[in-house]
Write a structure and sequence with these properties.
Rossmann fold; alpha/beta; 4 helices; globular; 33% helix; two-stranded antiparallel ribbon
């Protein structure tokens, strides 16, 4: 339990996370980086992150809530991505650290720090998701973290 007495899974998104989630949605929409599918952890704060991101992006595409993404390891995240239908061109994963940082490191051989609402954009030349989830199979195109006020 956290200091407020809530289970971590039920913890709400902090005010900064609320602002930053909407901002990242706007930022992605302005750069034509919107996904075909969003995979979202079942935790309350990631669900709220998704809803605020969706509103900021003006996005109304497909999403899947996945209990297995809650505090998932890089192996579990990569396994979930490998199962995607190849008709999906772009996917956004809304999850938790350290799993997301470790996934970026696994896929790109690049270590990054992902603060709240940080976006890491990866690309791969491989045609099947099942082939694109090995060590060093992706390139890190850019990261973007909302400015802190």
């Amino acid at each position: 339990m956290n200091p407020a007495g809530r289970l971590d899974h039920e913890r709400e998104l902090a005010p900064r996370g609320q602002r930053d989630s909407s901002y990242i949605g706007e930022w992605m929409a302005a750069r034509d980086l919107l996904p075909d599918l969003v995979l979202v952890s079942s935790a309350a704060r990631t669900q709220e992150t998704f809803e605020r991101w969706r509103a900021g992006a003006g996005w109304d595409g497909a999403s899947e809530t996945d209990d297995e993404l809650y505090l998932a390891s890089s192996y579990e995240i990569c396994d979930r991505i490998a199962q995607l239908d190849n008709a999906v061109d772009r996917v956004l994963v809304i999850g938790h650290n350290p799993g997301l940082e470790m996934t970026v490191r696994e896929l790109t051989d690049t270590a990054i720090v992902m603060k709240t609402a940080t976006l890491a954009c990866l690309t791969s030349e491989l045609e099947a998701w099942s082939h694109a989830v090995g060590r060093g199979t992706c390139a890190l195109v850019e990261t973007h973290t909302p400015e802190r006020s």
